[in-house]
Amino acid sequence: MCMLILQPSALLVFAGLATFVHYNDEKRAVTQEAQQPSVPKRCTTNRPAIGGPFKLYDTENNEVTESKLRGNWTLMYFGYTSCPDVGPAEVQKMADVVKLLESKYGTKITPLFITIDPQRDSPAQLKAYLSEFDPRIIGLTGSINAVRQIAQEYRVFFKRVDDIGQDYLVESSHNMYLLDPCLETARCFGAEYEASDLAEAIIMEIQKASQSSTN
Question: What pLDDT score was predicted for residue 214?
Fold first, then answer.
């Protein structure tokens, strides 16, 4: 039988090597964990499922998914550029709210307009339309199926009426959705809100979320 006998100095070297390897393994683990996208603790809570994954395109034909909106508060509205009455008023309200939040409260949010009429609302059409209100409003469009999917996810009702070829209206609900940085729906606002009331309600939701995250 052959037995290996380690001298005290060799034992110290071996122990030091083991400690060094263990330290590097822990360092690699910490580094890999830091490289993973962090998910705020609030995003892991279970809340009513309103919304979901989507893939649409902005006015520059860039792909936009739900992941690109994470990290910021978002004000979302579903409409279409040919809407004759309520639609333009709601888009103007959105533009006014964005300006109020910045000037009065020093708060920025992402304004988002999603068309429910993708057959007529091309990216160029959306860009021209929204620039008349505020160029900061992001316009999104996509295939008919993609638009139907996100509308269903946010429980938005819409259907074509008075349909004569390309001359038709789209009947729909006119709600705005406030999404928190986790893309969870914090509030839903009806058309009865004035811009000033809407801005104040948004600030209250942001402050409430900030307080809950520090507790």
Answer: 67
